[in-house]
Design a protein that fits this description.
The chain contains 4 helices and no strands. It has 104 residues and is mostly helical.
């Protein structure tokens, strides 16, 4: 559970570390497109799937479809984030499914 909370903290603190990243042409650390993408896509993986700070597409591709990375600048998980323990990777999505069921 420690890695889950650590990854969420690293995601939040990552907003101040955009200058450390290399961007594809047309993207920048100051651009709203990147901020929105990071704010939503890069949050979903650690919050809902207990994964490291990566995009959902990177996580699904790397976790289920191949052993390698994809994309020209996909790179490693950001900010030193790590995968959570197996029981956390099972419990967290089940918790969010249960929460969605409760509010419907």
């Amino acid at each position: 559970m420690d890695n889950y909370l650590l990854n969420l903290k690293l995601w939040y603190l990552g907003f101040k570390r955009f200058g450390e990243l290399r961007f594809k042409p047309g993207w920048s650390a100051d651009g709203w497109g990147w901020r929105i993408l990071y704010g939503l896509d890069y949050l979903a993986t650690p919050l809902f799937l207990a994964g490291p700070v990566v995009s959902l597409s990177w996580y699904f591709h790397n976790r289920w479809f191949s052993l390698g990375y994809h994309g020209a600048n996909a790179g490693n998980p950001l900010w030193g984030s790590v995968r959570c323990e197996p029981w956390v990777r099972l419990a967290v999505p089940l918790f969010w499914v249960w929460m969605a069921w409760l509010i419907t």
